Amino acid sequence: MAEVEEQGRKASEEYTDDSEEEDSEEEPKLKYERLSNGVTEILQNDAASCMTVHDKFLALGTHFGKVFLLDIQGNVTQKFEITSVKINQISLDESGEHVGICSEDGKVQVFGLYTREGFHENFDCPIKVVALHPQFTRSNYKQFVTGGNKLLLYERNWLNRWKMSVLHEGEGTIMNIQWRANLIAWANNVGVKIYDISTKQRITNVLKDNISLRADMYPYSLCWKDNTTLIVGWGTSIKICVVKERNPTEMRDLPSRYVEIVSAFETEFFISGLAPLADQLVTLFFVKENSDQMEEEFRARPRLDIIQPLPESCEEISSDALTVRNFQHNKCRDYRLEHSEGESLFYIISPKDIVVAKERDQDDHIDWLLEKKKYEEALMAAEISFKNIKKHDVQKIGMAYINHLVEKGDYDSAARKCQKVLGKNMDLWENEVYRFKTIGQLKAISQYLPRGDLRLRPAIYEMILHEFLKTDYEGFATLIREWPGELYNNMAIVQAVTDHLKKDPTNSTLLTTLAELYTYDQRYDRALEIYLRLRHKDVYQLIHKHNLFASIEDKIVLLMDFDKEKAVDMLLDNEDKISIDRVVEELAGRPELLHVYLHKLFKRDHHKGQKYHERQIGLYAEYDRPNLLPFLRDSTHCPLEKALEICQQRNFVEETVFLLSRMGNCRRALQMIMEELEDVDKAIEFAKEQDDAELWEDLISYSIDKPPFITGLLNNIGTHIDPILLIHRIKEGMEIPNLRDSLVKILQDYNLQILLREGCKKILVADSLSLLQKMHRTQMRGVRVDEENICESCHATILPSDMAKPFNVAVFHCRHMFHKECLPSPGTIPGVLFCNICSAKRRGPGSGILEMKK
Fold first, then answer.
1. CA distance 563 to 567
2. Which of 171, 252, 410, 473 holds its CA 20 to 30 A away from the CA of 51?
3. Are residues 481 and 421 in the same domain?
4. pLDDT-derived band of residue 310, with 50, 70 and 90 as boundaries?
5. Helix (H, G, I), strand (E, B), or coil: what is residue 665?
6. Which residues are registered as beta bridge partners of 274?
7. Does residue 497 contact residue 488 with C-beta atoms inside 8 Å?
8. Strand-pair category, 118-122 with 107-112
9. What confidence tier does 698 reach under pLDDT thresholds 50, 70, 90?
10. Are 679 and 706 in contact (CB under 8 A)?
11. Is residue 293 part of a domain?
């Protein structure tokens, strides 16, 4: 990609591989921008050699020996001219108040940014690295280390003088130092070592894997993830080391701490820098120049990858190829990766360019989704994080989504999204409605229009209704049912429907809809006419809901023709609104309907329609004979003579028999049963019901010359009359079918009666004896007599005050008590006393008494 020279913020694709971005649907993890402003001018005339990042500012060292303090945007705030040769390292303490600088000519300076007092020293060899104690600002920790041929520790003593001590030497040039808490990690030609300054012990030595690589061309990358985790990168190898406390029992002469390598793996490219990102790693790679997998023009392009370390390998999360200025001329040693621990900011430093990588925020995520036309996901992300997004507006994203759906031709989805996106903005709603009208899709948006407290102008709804009325009667009817009548001008829509009915007067959909419109307009009589004309099921609901009973008095026949059951139930449930007389009057010309009404009325209440019972006899006889006999039985207001006349005219034998028996003419009724029905069982049942000896005599007389009748009598009369009366009257020689069986049954019935009588007698005797014994036990019980009891005659205390004197007390089983002298003289039975109170109610001998004498 061509080099971008303009200043300011640049989109991430300006620094990443375009082909990868286009081919991959995976969202990038980082975004990039070039550090510009003062940095651009500095790097035009000089080249960056090192940089250190603090949460508040940046410190940039150059090849011409200058150190610049920059703000986060790259503006120069301070400038120090340290030397004329390359600045190798800048170190800051945690407070950002002190800085340490070393250069290629052996100069080392440590001073306060707000005071120039500090340490200044010239060495006779290049000093590659310097590191201040993280708490250097505090007086107890005025310490720093330098790395050249030796690792030197400088400490300020109580005399304010600097004391130097050698921590390590003899293994070549010290290439990198990282100080975290009490641990100092450094790298030389042999490997990486860690020194515990609190115990003054070296606790590990991590050897490098590939000794063939020159340390000055492929420098070490050291980074502390936390106070005990060190990440080491060199060549193509990465190791994650964890400093742990040693078990006291294992110490002996060993250091109190040891290092465990928890992850070690190889990478494809050379490592130029490392930084932690949560539990992942950000790695800056210098691409191998001899790689066959890369095209020629991309071989020297650095890559910034995010990887997930595993115990023996790693998983690539994302990978971006960076186009930094002059990347074609850079080597592995020319790149550095610094990071800000306070924020997830990563600085890629090269001689002629500094690029800042940062984690993508929600706005960036939405940008990417919109770019990929994933509008629904973008809208969802904006709704979830609406408090955190700064660049985007939820409604604008929603509008873009709606436009996208319309362009695709997915009009229903676009209309459905309007409900969510447009919300309460009535102007936007109207604009969308007119747009859908323009593209001929008013039907799509109709079902999603606001119809609650917030609503559009009536003209909008009327426009949609007119559109449906032209093309879709069913859809029009649906909208009329679903939309409240207040949304539009009801009269205008009624007129439009009426006009259409002139062309198609029998269209049931339009007629039903017109009835609903009349209902909304409270013109219920017109709605009722249409419903009745259509025989619509909602007619009864309309009548009940709007109390239209006065309007249906002359339409009762129509209602019953439509649905007899519902009509009758409605009329009977509302007798107070439509009287029985009025209904009977209306149904006079339709006797079959009148019968249905009066029959249900009689079922509900036998007395309400009593004056119509005489008419009902003929109606039952004509239309419902099965219910005639139950009606005659239940009615107490039916004229029997009239009923008998009708039944005899129509030859209704069972009904005539019932009426004759009810009028007292049981013999004639029995005669009809025997002669016309010829049903001996019914005759016997009738005789049983009447329980009349004369009827039984008539029945026997009539049956005596009919053998089948005799068999029936023999089988059934044994429990009502003496069978001997029948048997004596049977002529000798008459052949009677099943006579033997009938006689056996008579004997069995007789034996059963005897057994029943004996059983009843035994039960009666046992019960009598049991009750007598119970009464005897009850009467033999004592009765408590104390000072609270009184004589029922003289009302004095039943017991005398002087218990030493003799006294007589009579206590009856009814619990009444008397002094003996207060009782009347014995009656007709000598020696038997009666309770004065109870004997008035019950004449005769009283209950036995208890006498108390003393």
1. 6
2. 171
3. no
4. very high
5. coil
6. 283
7. no
8. antiparallel
9. low
10. no
11. yes
